[in-house]
Specification:
Length: 156
């Protein structure tokens, strides 16, 4: 399959592009938060989350209709990169989920007339930590995905 463009490879190209766009939007959202534009930050993050959810849903459909990749020609190094990639994806999903859940818990102190409580302020700090974890993991998932795309294209 050396150099053959397959439907699975096309899917992974689409997934890479979708994740790259989601990361770019999320990074823009972080800049908005730093400038104090919290409503715009939340809206941009919702868009980034939606793109990741679209990826997850399309991955399920991909497995159903296109199946999994054939990895019989892969060497140990390829599997190591894949497992590292999958770990970054897991960290991205966990970090993003925790950040989103925390954001919903202190939302009233940001958008409403409610004064932030000590718990809200703590949740904001934890939200920031998990958001950073999500962003860094997403970036590293894209780096490792580059190697996997290359492997799929050259090895199959």
């Amino acid at each position: 399959m050396d150099g053959l463009i397959t439907p699975n490879l096309l899917f992974w190209g689409y997934a890479y592009a979708l994740t790259l766009v989601a990361l770019a939007i999320a990074l823009q959202a972080v800049g908005l938060a730093r400038k104090g534009h919290l409503a715009a930050h939340g809206k941009r993050m919702d868009i980034a989350i939606l793109l990741i959810l679209i990826f997850v849903a399309s991955y399920v459909l991909k497995v159903i209709f296109l199946g999994r990749e054939e990895k019989q020609n892969w060497e140990t190094f390829h599997f190591v990169v894949l497992y590292i990639h999958e770990s970054f994806i897991a960290l991205m999903l966990i970090g993003g989920t925790v950040a989103r859940v925390l954001a919903s818990k202190f939302k009233q102190s940001v958008y409403g007339n409610q004064t932030p409580t000590a718990l809200d302020l703590k949740r904001r700090g934890t939200h920031r930590f998990f958001g950073k974890l999500c962003l860094v993991s997403t970036g590293m998932a894209l780096v490792t995905a580059s190697f996997i795309l290359y492997t799929l294209y050259t090895v199959g």
